[in-house]
């Protein structure tokens, strides 16, 4: 059974930083492309960033230069370092593209 457990969210003021973690099990993490997605109230689930099995990365334009994705295959974990956070980054963050497999982790950024 595939399990994804997101953590690291919180409430903070604009300009702050957070590091999200997603620990997985039930599939071959080393061989898998991983990503972070987010869903704000009333919005669709949107892609934030991906990292391939070989370490290639992609970022949505809205987070480029502020967020950094990384992975630790030994820990089956993917991370999202978020700097210079903005109120528009407020959302529930997931590491599945449906924004529904895990419980997600809430990020709330106030101005």
Quick structural overview:
With 111 residues, this protein is an all-beta fold. The protein contains no helices and ten strands. Strand 7 (67-72) and strand 8 form a beta hairpin.
What does this structure look like?
Helix content is 0%, strand content 49%. It is mainly beta. The strands form two sheets. A six-stranded mixed sheet has the order 2-10-9-4-5-6, with no helix packed on it. The protein has a four-stranded antiparallel sheet with strand order 1-3-8-7, with no helix packed on it. The protein is globular and about 40 Å long. 30% of the residues are buried.
Structure characteristics:
111 residues; mainly beta; 4-stranded antiparallel β-sheet
